[in-house]
Design goal:
This protein is mainly alpha-helical. The longest helix has 26 residues. The termini are far apart.
Length: 251
């Protein structure tokens, strides 16, 4: 394979990834472009795909050809699954900065966040520049932003855990759990250390399913969407209240 062939293949791979992410199925593409499904399949396989056709499909994702080329050339290898201590400290210094990064990590573009929260353009630009300097995001020429950290990352260091403790904990623990609009599940089980590790894996798997749900929902019919918080927690229980309550039944 020549260097040209390798570059073209990488650009096409980037295009296919964006099309999948934005919900462009073969059928939907064929209807939008006005060609048969077999033709679309050939194009996406690199057969008969001209520059004009490539650019047309890129525009469906809000991209230009230069974005595809840059992303193909600069695409990082395996994304980090954990932030550095310096990155966590920087994010924890400002609740808006950390929230903005989390929205980008979950596929929400800054323009949508700016609209939802009435963020001034200068404020958003300064925040994005800060995230870029921290090597957390990459800005494309189309104006779109991509994260440089895997969305399955976990907070293993103190700064962002402390930020959650300060700003988010009360959101979940001051809920009226008797209210019908509060949706939650709760379970008490007895588990070995191995079982506890397996439960932690299940929680991570559930988080990935929630992220996939959000991606699919964003590609559905246009409808009002609201920000929703979801928290999964596991910890060993303090059973002292159970022992104290036994006194009510003592003879």
């Amino acid at each position: 394979m020549t260097r040209y062939d390798s570059s073209a293949s990488a650009i096409l791979s980037v295009l296919r990834r964006h099309l999948r992410k934005d919900g462009w199925t073969i059928l939907r593409l064929s209807r939008e472009i006005g060609v048969g499904e077999a033709t679309v399949k050939r194009w996406l396989a690199g057969k008969g795909l001209t520059i004009d056709r490539l650019e047309a499909m890129a525009r469906l994702c809000g991209l230009v050809l230069g974005d595809l080329a840059r992303e193909a050339e600069d695409a990082p290898g395996e994304l980090a699954h954990e932030l550095t201590l310096a990155q966590e400290k920087a994010l924890s210094s400002n609740i808006f900065l950390s929230f903005l990064f989390m929205t980008i990590l979950n596929g929400v573009q800054p323009a949508e966040t700016a609209t939802d929260f009435a963020v001034p353009a200068r404020t958003m630009e300064a925040a994005l520049a800060r995230l870029e300097r921290l090597a957390l995001i990459d800005r494309l020429r189309s104006g779109k932003v991509r994260p440089l950290i895997d969305r399955t990352m976990v907070f293993r260091k103190q700064p962002l855990r402390a930020l959650f403790e300060q700003h988010m904990k009360h959101v979940f623990f001051e809920l009226d759990y008797s209210a019908p609009e509060t949706i939650y599940t709760s379970e008490v089980v007895k588990l070995s250390p191995t079982g506890q590790a397996q439960l932690a894996d299940l929680m991570e798997h559930f988080r990935a399913q929630v992220q996939a749900l959000a991606d699919r929902d964003a590609q559905g019919p246009v409808a009002a969407r609201e920000w929703v918080g979801m928290l999964s927690v596991m910890r060993k229980l303090d059973l002292s209240p159970m022992h104290q309550a036994q006194g009510e039944f003592a003879e």
